[in-house]
Amino acid sequence: MEANDVRRREFLGGTAALAGLTLLNVPFPAWSFPSRPGEAVIPWMDQPPPPPERFSQVVPKQLRWEEVDAWLTPNDRFFAVGHYGFPAIDVRDWTLTVTGLVRQPLTLTRDQLMALPRRDVVYTMECAGNRGFPFFTGGIGTARWVGTPLAPLLEQAGIREGGVEVVFYGADTGEEQVRDIKVRAPFGRSMSIADATNPNLLLCYEMNGAPLPQTHGFPLRLIAPGWYGIANVKWLARIEVRDTRYEGRFMGRDYVTLREEQIGGQKLAVETSVGRTLLASAPARVTRHDGRYRIVGAAWGGPIARVEVRIDDGPWLPAAIDRSEEAEFAWKIWALDWDGPLPGEHGITSRAVDTAGRIQPAMNDPSIVNKRTYWESNAQVTRRVRIG
């Protein structure tokens, strides 16, 4: 038996011990998504159906939960989204401009950006539409992103008085129709001045130790840790400081959550633009090894205090959280040893709880039931598996 296997058995030997260690926040050795000799993955029964062709053109790749075997998601398994296609950009002809309400407009090449101070962040990126459709369950992945902080460049440019928002434009464009008017528009998303100058934001040119792939925004993309994927503008070409609110398609017409609320005795609709990632978790896979079963999953969207797992209609059980890989904006991997499951079909549900005591909502929670759009679908996930 290998040393790593011995350590995993020592720390994963019993649910009660695991629960105690988790509550005490004792760090674990690295066992994120462990793969032991002879360990078999039990396929989920509720595999997502094939997506429509139109959807596949926008999201050509999704994460397959059963295949996740590391804390970081390899680039070739990372989900991809391209609303206006996936442009191939010749870096020799590319520059980034910083313009608008600034005292000193900037124009930078990729080499100039790469010569600036370098910083990395491990960040779990989730598409805001993930789990909004039965066929879209893998719009998530975790990578180590490398680039240069955005805030010093904005400081160098000097935001002038009257600046309200910072707009990020990609090089990708598409035809949009607003009522009876057709226009060609660039992909754009905006943030407040305060959000855009947050030191965590990166102008990213590297993903998991390799140059940023073309499908993920080469030569440059914005990385906004803690935000849904839509905010992380790919193929970044222009940053503009404006004195008015920006309301492009992906801010004011699309990626807008419509939720009904009780207001003055009436049920009225409230619309909010998708922003920061919400608290969520999901079972990833069930494995069998030497006749014993283990449930492994992930939790993200905030500082995770604990994760609980329910099998069928049983009690919520505390899962162990792998604290060996700590990163503020990355998912936490959890596991629960499942001793002596009865043969047959079972439902496995997980829920995350953050350090403020917020609980990932159930499917019947008003925040989910009263939501009329598929964005920000962070309800508890139940997966089905057959044992025996």
Structure notes:
By secondary structure, this protein is mainly β. The protein is built from eight helices and 21 strands. The chain has helices spanning 3-11, 15-24, 53-58, 110-114, 151-157, 193-196, 249-253, 366-369, and strands at residues 40-42, 96-100, 106-108, 119-126, 140-149, 165-178, 181-192, 202-207, 210-211, 221-223, 236-242, 256-263, 266-273, 280-289, 292-300, 304-311, 317-318, 320-321, 332-338, 344-354, 381-387. Strand 12 and strand 13 (266-273) form a beta hairpin. The model is unreliable at 1-30 (pLDDT under 50).
What order do the helices and strands come in, and which of them pair?
Blueprint: H1 3-11, H2 15-24, E1 40-42, H3 53-58, E2 96-100, E3 106-108, H4 110-114, E4 119-126, E5 140-149, H5 151-157, E6 165-178, E7 181-192, H6 193-196, E8 202-207, E9 210-211, E10 221-223, E11 236-242, H7 249-253, E12 256-263, E13 266-273, E14 280-289, E15 292-300, E16 304-311, E17 317-318, E18 320-321, E19 332-338, E20 344-354, H8 366-369, E21 381-387
Parallel strand pairs: 2-11
Antiparallel strand pairs: 1-14, 2-3, 4-5, 5-8, 6-7, 6-11, 8-9, 8-10, 12-13, 14-15, 15-19, 16-17, 16-20, 18-19, 20-21
Keywords:
Immunoglobulin-like; five-stranded antiparallel beta sheet; mainly beta; Sulfite Oxidase, Chain A, domain 2; 8 helices; disordered N terminus; about 400 residues
Task: Please provide a brief summary of the model.
This protein has 388 residues and is mainly β.
CATH fold description of the largest domain: Sulfite Oxidase, Chain A, domain 2
User: Which structural class do you get from the secondary structure elements?
Assistant: mainly beta
Strand content: 35-45%
- The largest beta-sheet arranges its strands as 1-14-15-19-18
Given the C-alpha coordinates, what overall shape results?
A: globular
Q: Give helix % range.
A: 10-25%
| Average pLDDT for all residues | 91
Give the domain tally.
Answer: 2
